[in-house]
Specification:
Immunoglobulin-like; 705 residues; five-stranded antiparallel beta sheet; 62 strands; 0% helix
Length: 705
């Protein structure tokens, strides 16, 4: 095969600094073309299919000789006449940064054969206008830009003929503006602050700097708020916020002052300068504008004092424990809780004294319990020595006293926190002819008491009336008889030898005793005598007829009763039942008869109460001889034989297809039921019509098909 013809280059040009594009007329029979670029030092060959073709891998701003050869299976043609083409300038390599939030600085290295440079800048989102600058320098600055905004920068160099070279594109964001509207919310309880601000355009992160003296805290976040923990009480901090993005940081905001809550007051002292007055004092604290003292007593009552000074006065009561806490306040809030102090005042003075002679050589001293007292001490001085009694109870029994001997008796109250209360004024208590001073000393005369009375007889004068007799032993004594039981206490009083206990409850057991009281005191109680009252009658009694001849009777429990006897009685006969239960079935009841109802409640010891109730009337008798006759109109006629012509009856017909009834006029002993569905089995009951209560269900049934 013959080699192809030599191609002829139409044009050759360079649009990129590393390539030249060649255009030629196609050669008949050529299957490929070889492009060659020579610069004197080197050459580069490229095989292409057709025109145009591009030779790559060239050097910028370099003059090349370009030739083309056509190729087929027969070989290569001779090179075409050459064309001289120079590659365009290389693109400047940009170095870009944002020195401030509204400017971008661009710089580059010198480009070979470059006569000047063109740099353009535009917002990447397409908004706004494009800025363009031509320069022969290797740097420039764009100003008055939008903070935190992404810009696209394009630059290229041109040669002495004004031919532009390759361009270089770079995206650069301006640094963010400083945040605005910085606010600080301080949490006084947790000693931390939440700093917030308005989000800044283009900011990716924020940094909050908190400093106080040499202390510096930092909080970094990507949101528009930041939590600054672990602040110290009684300190003033300054906070500033800086915004950051990939271009750099904004200027920090103006410092915002934050004063934390004051620290808890210290050196707290509590003094009771006089009884009933507490003085609480403390040391002043930094940043504390005023103070509040809370005093809470152990009964839950709380008072407080608000002051700008360092002490407060409170009223106090004896026998209380007070819990005291002091807080400092300023605009930021309340100081943390400091130590809680407690102060216990001296116990209260004993009062309401009573002196009771238990026997000729024993006296019992009692008094009202006082608040704050853990222990009481009773001293009886006289005779051959001192009788001492210490106890936590509000009573003291002084025994083995010498007869006809004066004693000085003193009672003191003590507490573990404040020992004895020495500020109590003397209390005077008179008991008969005995005079006692507390806590100052006074004589007590010893007088012999009356002997115990002896109960001679107890008799019942009525259902709830009991007469008690005893043997008197002191003309000046007043006798008190007491009946004591689970139901309570009953008393009667007399200066003679008997008295009557009234209104004792039924069904109750008592223990009866007597005491004698005289100006010298009270005797010991007599021996107790047991007493039982008759059982109570049941409050509720209900009768329900079960059949014509059987009635169920039930009643409520009668207190004190063990067994019951119930009786239904009429001129026709009597029905009786004796049972341990609260119900009974009575048979042999005659229908249509009025009965009297009685019940006897019997106790375990045989005491009996007879109870009467409202009379009872048994139901009317059921009819006899009930017969059924079919009628022509799908009905039946019901006949019966009435037990009493003054009683009206009702016939009930019940089946799966319906229920029917009929009631004749008074005096008739039949009635008709019509339009009864056929093909069913019916139950027929004829029963007396009652004035009140449910229908009788115990009358005989007839089956009708």
């Amino acid at each position: 095969m013959v080699t192809p013809d030599i191609p002829v280059i139409d044009q050759a040009y360079s649009k990129l600094s590393n390539s030249i594009t060649v255009e030629w007329r196609a050669v008949l029979g050529a299957t490929n073309y070889m492009l060659t670029a020579e610069d004197g030092d080197s050459f580069i060959e490229t095989i292409v299919k057709n025109s145009p073709g591009t030779v790559t891998g060239l050097k910028p701003a370099t003059l090349y000789r370009i030739t083309v050869r056509s190729i087929n299976s027969g070989g290569k043609s001779q090179p075409s006449p050459f064309r001289k083409v120079k590659t365009v300038l290389a693109a400047p390599i940009l170095s870009v940064h944002s020195p401030s939030c509204d400017s971008i600085a661009v710089s580059w290295k010198a480009v070979h054969m470059a006569a000047g440079f063109s740099v353009s800048l535009m917002r990447s989102d397409g908004l706004g206008r494009m800025l363009k600058q031509n320069t022969t320098n290797t740097s420039l600055i764009f100003t008055n830009l939008d903070p935190g905004t992404l810009y696209t920068i394009k630059a290229y160099a041109w040669n002495a003929n004004g031919m532009p070279g390759d361009d270089f594109t770079y995206n650069q964001r301006t640094s963010p503006n400083a945040p605005v509207d910085v606010k600080v919310a301080f949490n006084s309880g947790a000693l931390r602050a939440v700093v917030s601000w308005m989000p800044t355009e283009g900011a990716l992160t924020y940094s909050v700097t908190v400093f106080s003296g040499l202390l510096k805290l930092r909080c970094n976040t990507s949101s528009a708020s930041c939590l600054v923990p672990s602040l110290q009480c009684g300190s003033e901090y300054y906070l500033s916020v800086t915004a950051y993005n990939d271009a750099g940081s904004s200027e920090p905001t103006d410092a915002v002052s934050l004063k934390t809550v004051p620290c808890a007051p210290v050196n707290i002292s509590i003094e009771e300068d006089e009884p009933g007055h507490l003085l609480v004092s403390w040391s002043s604290v930094s940043l504390g504008h005023y103070y509040v003292v809370f005093v809470k007593s152990d009964d839950g009552l709380e008072v407080h004092c608000n002051t700008s000074y360092t002490q407060c006065h409170f009223q106090s009561d004896c026998g209380f424990t007070y819990f005291i806490s002091v807080f400092a306040y300023n605009e930021a809030g309340q100081s943390p809780l400091g130590d809680i102090f407690n102060y216990t005042t001296a116990p209260c003075c004993p009062s309401d004294f009573r002196a009771v002679f238990m026997s000729s050589d024993t006296v019992r001293i009692t008094w009202a319990p006082v608040r704050g007292a853990d222990l009481y001490e009773t001293r009886a001085a006289g005779g051959s020595g001192v009788v001492l009694c210490r106890d936590t109870a509000t009573a003291c029994t002084l025994s083995a006293l010498q007869c006809s001997t004066p004693y000085n008796i003193t009672v003191y109250s003590f507490s573990e926190a404040r020992a004895s209360n020495t500020s109590c004024a003397p209390q005077h208590v008179a008991t008969g002819s005995v005079i006692t001073h507390f806590p100052s000393a006074e004589e007590i005369g010893i007088i012999h008491h009356s002997d115990s009375p002896e109960i001679k007889n107890i008799s019942k004068e009525g259902l709830s009336v009991i007469s008690v007799q005893w043997q008197p032993n002191n003309e000046e004594a007043t006798y008190v008889v007491t009946a004591r039981g689970e139901a309570g206490l009953w008393h009667c009083t007399s200066t003679r030898n008997s008295c009557t206990l009234m209104d004792l409850p039924c069904g109750s057991a008592f223990s009866v005793s007597a005491i004698a009281r005289s100006p010298a005191g009270q005797s010991l109680p007599s021996y107790s005598i047991p007493l039982e009252t008759a059982p109570c009658c049941p409050n509720d009694l209900i009768l329900a007829q079960v059949t014509q001849s059987v009635t169920n009777i039930s009643w409520s429990v009668g207190r004190g009763a063990q067994t019951y006897v119930t009786t239904l009685e009429s001129p026709k006969g009597q029905a009786k039942c004796h049972t341990l239960q609260t119900y009974c079935l009575l048979g042999c009841i005659t229908c249509g008869t009025n009965y009297t109802v009685s019940l006897r409640a019997i106790s375990e010891t045989g005491l009996t109460s007879s109870c009467t109730y409202q009379g009872y009337s048994s139901s009317a008798c059921c009819p006899s001889g009930v017969k059924l006759y079919r009628l022509s109109n799908n009905g039946i006629r019901v006949f019966w034989r009435a037990s009493n012509e003054t009683i009206n009856y009702n016939a009930d017909l019940r089946g799966s297809k319906g229920n029917f009834s009929c009631t004749p006029t008074l005096g008739l002993s039949h009635c008709d039921i019509t339009k009864i569905p056929c093909g069913d089995v019916y139950t027929v009951v004829v029963a007396p019509v009652t004035d009140k209560g449910p229908k009788l269900t115990f009358c005989p049934k007839k089956i009708y098909s």
